[in-house]
Amino acid sequence: MTDRDYQQFPDDDNGDVLWQMHQDGDDLTEAHEIEYSIAFTSQEQAEKCALFLLHEEQKISLFVDEESDLKEWIITIYMYMEPEYSDIVDLEEWVTKIAEQYQGVYDGWGCMAYVYDDEIEDDESPASLNS
């Protein structure tokens, strides 16, 4: 196990997630599809925000979260980028400002892990959750 580089992985939530990805063997030099989410209690505001983001040429999805206690509309913005700390922080600030403009709440980011196992043979498939 290597020591954490606090320049690359600062001591906060974003740094912790990126450090965990690195520890898990995720290649952070590869571009990932990172998802930033905004939650809305108003369908009208969610749709206005979605339209704005589409005009900004962003790849998005909009769905209703029926599972939450109060009905929420969730916009997910999909950014294809290297998961680099300062870029993530900058995008969080941008998404937070947009969320506030449309009475939404920034709800965090996430992405799929990109872990490659060099020992996989041609006839083997990568490990999956379906065992």
TrEMBL record:
SUPFAM superfamilies recorded: Hypothetical protein VC0424
Residues annotated as domain Regulator of ribonuclease activity B: 12-111
Pfam families: RraB
InterPro entries per the UniProt record, alphabetical: RraB-like_sf, RraB_dom
Name this polypeptide is given: Ribonuclease E inhibitor RraB
Phylogenetic classification of the source organism: Bacteria, Pseudomonadati, Pseudomonadota, Gammaproteobacteria, Moraxellales
